Amino acid sequence: MADTTHHSLGAQTERTAAGADKPHSAGEANTTVRYRGGGFRTHSIFWVGPVVFVVLIAVWEWGTQTGFISNLTLPKPSDVLGTFGELWRTGTLFEHLIPSLTRFAVGSAMGCLAGVIIGVMIGLFSHVRAGLVPVVAAIFPIPKIALLPLFIIWFGIGEGSKYALIALGTFTPMVVATYGAVDNVDRTLIRMGQSFSLSWASIVRKIVLPGAMPGIFSGLRVSLAIGIILLVAAEMLGARRGIGAYILEAGSLYDLERLFAGVIILSALGVVVNFVLGLIEDRVLRWRS
Amino acid sequence: MDLRVDALSHRYGNLEVLSDISLDIPAGQVVSIIGPSGCGKSTLLRFIGGLERPSEGQIIQRGQPPEGSLNPLTYVFQDFALLPWRTVAGNIALVLEDHGLGSARQDEIITNVLARTKLSEFRDALPKQLSGGMKQRVAIARALAVNPAVMLMDEPLSALDSQTRELLMDDLIDLWARERFTAVYVTHNLAEAVRLGHQIVVLSRRPGKIREIITIETPLDARRRSDPELASIEERLWSVMRDEAQAADLELVDG
Ligand SMILES: Nc1ncnc2c1ncn2[C@@H]1O[C@H](COP(=O)(O)OP(=O)(O)OP(=O)(O)O)[C@@H](O)[C@H]1O
Ligand SMILES: [Mg+2]
After folding, report:
1. CA distance, residue A180 to nearest chain B CA (Å)
2. pLDDT tens-digit readout, B188-243
3. Using only C-alpha atoms, what is the Rg of chain B?
4. Residues of chain A that touch chain B, judged by Cβ-Cβ distance less than 8 Å
5. Which of A195, A202, A288 is the mutation pick for testing B, counting most B CBs within 10 A?
6. Strand order in the sheet with B73-76
7. B6: left (phi over 0), alpha (psi -120 to 50) or beta
8. Span from the CA of B56 to the centroid of ligand 2 (angstroms)
9. Could you report the predicted ipTM of this complex, rounded to two decimals?
10. Which of A150, A155, A238, B124 makes an SS bond possible with A160, Cβ 3.0 to 4.6 Å?
């Protein structure tokens, strides 16, 4: 190895060639340097997730079939699947799913949009920040479900109170995430914008907002998950249709198959929301290295 | 358009950063500013470009910027400051969009500056796809796009490896030979200061005062890296700077 790298330097070649066999002559064994740079970095392995799911469900099915797991504690996965089939055939699925999705979409769209707008204002204007950050800090830790009776008085027992609950629940984390994201926009980029005499509006629209996008997206993930939780809570406390109402009814009848079917719909909703968000994020944040 | 720094002093709180700086920046010349770390070079440059206000003194502009100059005082930053979400062309468009030039004219300017900085093929690349040297060329193209009267360059080559730095330095000298731009060039690197400066301003350690101004008559494009005259100037600059740098190095950062 040593003499190939030095092949052009005549005098040196001889010296290294002469010295090259020294390490071997002492009778020491050659060992490769131990690799120790692994770990601390995750990469996506697409098949592990599905396999874990399948194994869990298989064990569960086996346990309930053999009676190892009493069917008072857990329903059979195959029965839950049957319930799904029934839900689908009778059209009950959509009877509950459509109102739920509408509430979730309307409520979280209002909450997230308002959250982003207020968050950006807090990020940009010192007065707004001084005025609103304490307010947001005061609202954030309130369990929003506790406010549902109040919203029912304000907005009625119908859809209004549910929209309000979901909107408020998604609003606060969105505000906090957004102004954090605006604060984190690279100051040197803003300074660059100023140094080229860009207008204030241009700097906000072309530098601050795109720069805050990664933070806004992580805020969205959190907010939408909270939105699903609040959706169910609202439907449990005052609705005849919706996944939450369906689960509540199944629960009060101890109908475990239907309870599980409802829970699985919710968790699927979470997965789908995350997946769609991931797709949008990949497109919008393609510039990230 | 000439610039004059007139009796400029500045303090941040109790920290005196610059003290009584007066300096001429004549049109068509490159003024190199060197000085030990923390002596206020970047601060001085921010004053010259109007990004910050000095506690005392002022920056005087003599004459009008050339016709069609969109942004007379234009920076080139050490860390490039490119928007990662815009392509090369988009980053240049950014500084033109506010001027309402119309898309045809804007396109023409972008094509022109990309050709001048040898970047035409990379028009649609994102910054993350470019090497450091290319990113800085994009930043220089962006500066040229607004047709500046004075370019303010804060260690534009420091973030680059030494080979890339040499190449880009040659590019800058070529560019100057063609366009005779005016520039203030802040650097740590004595060789850069000597290769590129018509005047070399040496600042003392903080508070930065002018220690010495050296004028080099040899035209930029006639300077060779091995030129003994330049080497002796560099030697002399180092002897002026050595003590300052040593003392600055021993100071507590927020002392
Ligand atoms: N905005 C600020 N507020 C307070 N102090 C500052 C500010 N900007 C710079 N300083 C201080 O002023 C001094 C000069 O800073 P400056 O960045 O101008 O130095 P410099 O000569 O460019 O240094 P370097 O060679 O490391 O780039 C430093 O001590 C720095 O800590
Ligand atoms: Mg500096």
Report:
1. 19
2. 889 999 999 999 999 998 889 999 999 998 888 888 878 888 899 999 999 888 88
3. 18
4. 188-189, 191-199, 202, 206-207, 210-211, 213, 285-289
5. A195
6. B73-76, B150-154, B182-186, B30-34, B199-203, B210-215
7. beta
8. 20
9. 0.89
10. A155
Please tell me which residue, A238 or B144, carries the higher pLDDT value.
B144
Tokens at residue B240, please?
């002026």
Domain segments of chain A: what residues? Answer: 76-288
Closest CA relative to residue B103, chosen from B89, B114, B84, B86: B89
Q: How far is A200 from chain B (nearest CA, A)?
A: 11
DSSP string over A83-130:
HHHHHHHHTHHHHHHHHHHHHHHHHHHHHHHHHHHHHHHHHH-HHHHH
Provide the whole-model pTM.
Answer: 0.83
Buried b (16+ CB within 10 A) or exposed e, A268-280: ebeeebeeeeeee
B71 and B146 Cβ atoms separated by less than 8 Å: yes
Domain A76-288 has CATH 1.10.3720.10: yes
Tell me how far apart the alpha carbons of residues A69 and A64 are, in angstroms, rounded to a whole number: 5
Position A21 scores a pLDDT of 52
Q: How far is the CA of B153 from the centre of ligand 1 (A)?
A: 16
Helix (H, G, I), strand (E, B) or coil at A156: coil
Distances (CA, A) of A64 to A54, A135, B160: 15, 51, 65
Chain A residue with Cα closest to B86: A287
Instruction: Give the pair of three-digit tokens for residue A59.
Output: 């064990």
Indicate yes or no: CB of B74 within 8 angstroms of CB of A195. yes
Indicate yes or no: CB of B75 within 8 angstroms of CB of A202: no
* Among candidate residues B8, B20, B159, the one with its CA nearest the CA of residue B76: B159
- Rounded average pLDDT over A47-56: 90
Look at B81 and A210 and tell me if their CB atoms are within 8 Å.
Answer: no
The 8-class DSSP code of residue A287 comes to T
On the question of a cis peptide bond just before residue B207, with omega within 30 degrees of 0, the verdict is yes
Ligand 1 atom 16, closest CA? B40
Q: Which of B78, B21, B26 is nearest to B54 (CA)?
A: B21
- pLDDT for position A55: 95
- Closest alpha carbon within chain A to B125: A287
Q: Residue B59, SS3?
A: strand
A contacts of B128 (beta carbons < 8 Å): 287-289
In 3D space, the residue among A154, A125, A122 whose CA is nearest the CA of residue A137 turns out to be A122
Question: Would you state the structure tokens that stand for residue B104, as one six-digit string?
Answer: 């045809």
